[in-house]
Amino acid sequence: MPRGFFITFEGLDGSGKTTQLKRLAAWMQRRGVTPVVTRQPGGTATGDRIRELLLDSRSSSLAPLAELAMMFADRAQAIAEVIEPALAAGKTVLCDRFTDSTEAYQGGGRELGSVPVLEMHRVICGSLQPDLTLLLLPSLEASLERARRRNDRVTAQSGKDENRFESEEEAFYCRVWKKYREIAQRDAERVVCIEGDLTIDEVHEQVVEAVAMRISEASRV
Question: HSE on the CB side for 123, CA within 13 Å?
């Protein structure tokens, strides 16, 4: 059986990646493909517990290296439990964040650098890399405003607090933003960067175009 296709969505919180992932999943389903949809951190019972600790504002004293280790603990479980079995079964996997997020947030935002993140990826993830990464980069201001408004709404409705990263200073997010741009330039064959304050439909059109092209290329190999 041919191996499946691994697509990740990346970007700042509030960039619209989760919305676009859901729209892509629906687009695929209309064409007879039912993708496996997951997220990081989270996506497994263990991962959801790690996510709760990582994103809760009460975890404000979490050391950067502890944060990095927890991100990869979540990822190791997701690979073993969800991602690798799906790919081995020939399925398409859509994942909301992967190692690029860790490199951007912990490597860039926390200033740990790319080297420890990529070494952790080598140890934990081995040769597993997305076949395609869709990096959404609207303006920094628009992303943060949407993320904070969304998290305030979720907290009010459910009582869940996932605001720890949104409480960071703008300088933190500037470093995350710059690291994402660095990743896109370094891994240009894998990463498709969709920039600007576009409408949801405009972004979806670019997402579908990139996915259709990349899957077509893969089928000819």
Answer: 9
